[in-house]
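call fold(seq) -> tokens
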Amino acid sequence: MKDWEEAVRIVFPSALEGCDLSILPLYALDWSVPLQKKELFDPAFAARPFSPSSLPAFRSLPRPLPPTFDGFFVEGRRKISVKEGKAVSLCSYFNAFPAGFWARFTDVKSVRLSFKAQGKGTVEVWRSDAHGREKREWASAFEGERDFSPSFSISSMAEGGYLWLDLHASLPSSLDSASWQVPSSKKEGGQDVCLTTFNSPLSASMAISSVKGKEVKKVFCVDQGSVCALKDPAFVRASRFLPGFNYIKQENFGGSGGFARGMLEALEGEDPFFVLMDDDARLEGESLDRLSIFQKHCLSPAIVGAGMFHTDSPSSLFTFGEALDLKKLWYFSSLDLGYNHDFAALPLRDSPRLHRRCSEDYQGWWLCSIPRSVVQKIGLPLPVFIKFDDIEYGLRAKEASIPSLCLPGTAVWHPAWHLKDQTRSWVEYFAERNRFLTGLLYKPDASGVFKASLRDQSNLGLRMEYASMALKNMALKDLLSGPGFLFKNQEEKKKRAERIRLLTDAPALPPSSLPLPAVQTPDPEAVCRMKRALKAGMGLFFCSVGSAAQEPQREVSSTDSWLSLACCSHAQVYSQKGLVKTVKKNAPLFRRLYKENLILTAELVKRWSDLSKAYRKADMGSVESWKAIFRL
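ret:
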């Protein structure tokens, strides 16, 4: 007789979150008749990326109504009640079973749904395929209190698809203690959490608290801040009585240094999986257990990540997975699934594209599970301080035939990237340096490098972001110096980047202290590529000659495109924090920085092959290299 273990417990928003309607679509929603969408009849449509030519067809698709929650109410973390004559669907991010991922990456061939229904009505299990086409797999009427345990084969679902439960109530009914179960694994479990923090003891204490009671053996908290987290009462309370808690204080080696130290310490133990977690990430309570059970069943080692929902838009998922375009040396969403999918606007059931299983080049380290065997095989992250450490690690794993995937049903809520604009901070230096370093490690030649660098520098020049232009040049200079110099004195380089920002950028001020500009120009709509290129050329010429106007000519948002500032010599740019920075044309500085970038990029292209060999040979992510950095 088979023994079963819970893989996905069906849950609802906990008491901490209440029944906040902003996150409820991620758990449950009122049942509605499935829309007959064009994708269902034209599978090729679902596989095609969006383009301007396909937008009219996309806009002609029937639109789902906003989800409603009138037919049910949440009674607890594991229990939901459905009103008489109403129905609830659990085809949601956290409660649908991601059968496509289990069928492709694990040894599981069949799953069982165990639950208790009370009242009177009908329970149904639905199955979707990779194109989002739905099929009722099982149904049963119930009256009174009944336990159910139907089983389902998933062996044919490796391309994608979900299983989910719907309940239709004839009389007031409830669903309790439901879970998707898989055959028990004989493999050893156990995971260590590696968390790094920097002058944020409150965030770290919340992250540590969320780990309590989960399938976690040890927690390594690496503190790299100037303020000791152990002096904070909330942090002390959170870490007290936490089994296997290890607090490590070290100098600031950035995010990569914090995670590397945690992984290095975890290597001294025996637990099979390491979970990397941001200190400012708020964990969905089921995520760690779901990652653990999935990893135990994987046929071969895999890097398994979790989704990231925006803290300020909690029903919006940042991405389903990403890959790196080695030509542009920038990332993009896997399978053209796009970014920032809002499940409150487009629930899983009404989003056929999202039912296709995808794998990625890498996983973000807001929450990511890495097998011990992977670390032993390919080493630790590169000592790059911040940015692209997770991307490089995923590409390194891919070279070793180790896949990366984002497991639906696991997630954190994390501050959105639009609140962290790196083009206006010291982070720009590390992002640019590490981006081209990743290219040197994995790109066979320099094709596209000159164009990518020129495009980025032109974009910054048109926006009069001279500090960012200087930081990009600083990054290229350091990269050209070779691996022997690149990773020394990282904290000093951070301070140097901050000084460049301070000396080059005008200070941000409250808007009330500045005059109103003559024109408030809206962000221009997209135009054809030829017109954009023409405007860019005209704008670059304008940037290189003449002087700035005395009074601000325009008022724009920091998120507006470069077209908003093309051929403008003095503007006020609003930040996400409500402050205003004045930018002024500086033709001599633009010419010097632009010319310097051309020379540096040309040298990088010329020396690409030799530098690539040098950086590959340096073995920067080895345990020995990190022990030398940590002076252990």
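Residues 422-610 form one domain.
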